[in-house]
């Protein structure tokens, strides 16, 4: 009788059955046969080797995490500095000098009561204990000093290009206390907490922001509500908020994640998730499997650097001021889990597989073999095996991911009823616990010179929602590879904001093209490996009742997706290089162009959202810059008034630009409006008190929602040598049903990519019409500075 004790194999398709059966025999770690002579035990050395290497890999990761925890824990000092301090203390002791002012003698007398140590041993132990205490005190002092220094933000409000002597001294002090060679999380404990602004200051800034948007009577009514709130209810709510700010690491972030993201019951697709595009012009290979191989490997190299904390923290002001790195922690091995009232975020320390979707089927692909990461050519081989697999989807499998695209409550109930046990639970666990999700899309996408508008619009919509059932919208991100080799990413929003995903994506694109590269025939470099087991088909048993829920979710998602009107285009006329020649902020320039374009499009002004970051503070995320100000409105009205001279328009532009920059700096330094009012509103709900002022403020729609995608690793692309390797940026869906969503990225010196979204169902909006107004507004503002189209070409 032969009994397989450990069998790591799933039934193969007929095409590969004989090959896989040989692999299955190798996968049996050991088997035994019972005979009259006893037990005949046979060991599989290959299987035991894989088990050993897998365990070794896990222990290496644990050791690295422990080592990094120690290094980060003592930063800005280093572990070796402990030895220096202790040796220094011991040296002074042997020189008959007491550096402790009597503390070492007290430790010595305390140790004397034990009676187990000799006099010399007591002296050594006393010196080591005092040296260790002194070392810890120095670390705490340096860390607190750095936190105090980083609480200063006066440098941000200085005139551009000018730096005071005080700021230079401050920069030197920050660098002295910052230590050497910081790791990704080294600065976390030294970052200051997000301050809570005074209620009256926030209320006054709010009233200033809505003044140009309200009629006189409405503004008087709102002013009365605001002043009553600032005097009566506001201080009471503020007391609780102050209490939270002293206790919690960040008084906004946990509530923002829970109430803005996780408690939302509507679809994530379009409404919350966002996307990132590939390089605009370049497709390094047209082989889908090869592009997936390099792309997946590049993502895993980034994860490797992240696990080792080798990614450098983002530093501003000449590599001086650190930004918070907390959002990187949940980039991989993360999934949003649906609940009836609120979702949760599931994050694992590690995951050794990915799940790949192709033609309605799900495949589990292991990322390691022989204790090492799969090479690009080996991953390409695995992807090609999936592409060549002729098997059909199981009942309900093809549209299963539509559950993540629809309403959250039906998905939560369905998950609890049908995916809590058996093969469905195992397969769903494989998806949710994967490092990330991969979609091999059957369409061809990307920029086509013969039809740039339609091709980019189709590309954007495909990344944003696809077919509504071919992306797992709950995963931290879905990596998408199209049939023609173009790639992209769809990211879930609750765990992190776009700049963090953008940092990963910049690394992936540059590593794919400049480090990994491709062979002349378009395949990944390297050799295939026939010993690697085939990808495993995930098995499902989806009952008809669940299939009905899937169809309902798909219908909901299809209605939402078909309503999205997208216009994505590159703006070539000029870029930030020429804007800086005008001695103005590129972001302010674009924001004022958006205000002008919106006014020409709608004939009115609207509440405008521009995303700013608060990562100067620990666990900071975003704040709102209310870009529509009285100053911007005055400039826009002057631009559409033929009686105004160029000089008058320029003067108003500069005033509006400086105002915008001031508002942006206030938001970055913790003096924004909206997050403070949001938290006061949450406190009011906990206290069960009603505030007409807060209720009205938080119900105001953002009909123009904007965001700039920052380029954070410009050195990776070297656009002077590789001018065609420009990023396309990314975008998001419209926030309001009757409004626009606009994302933009300033690439190099001469290109700006725009992504405009709206809804077909709104009779007021049209993304292509807005795009035309935006191009015209950009050119009209640049013309104020005397740059004609010919002079712009010369600048290029």
UniProtKB/TrEMBL annotation:
It is found in: Mitochondrion outer membrane. The chain crosses the membrane at residues 124-146. Residues 194-776 form the Choline/carnitine acyltransferase domain. Pfam families: Carn_acyltransf (PF00755), CPT_N (PF16484). One of its GO terms (cellular component) is mitochondrial outer membrane. PROSITE patterns: ACYLTRANSF_C_1, ACYLTRANSF_C_2. The keyword Zinc does not apply. Keywords: Acyltransferase, Fatty acid metabolism, Lipid metabolism, Membrane, Mitochondrion, Mitochondrion outer membrane, Transferase, Transmembrane, Transmembrane helix, Transport. Residues 21-67 form the Carnitine O-palmitoyltransferase N-terminal domain. The active site is at 493 (proton acceptor). It is an enzyme of class 2 (transferase). GO terms for biological process: fatty acid beta-oxidation; long-chain fatty acid transport. Belongs to the carnitine/choline acetyltransferase family. This is carnitine O-palmitoyltransferase. It comes from Equus caballus. The gene is CPT1A.
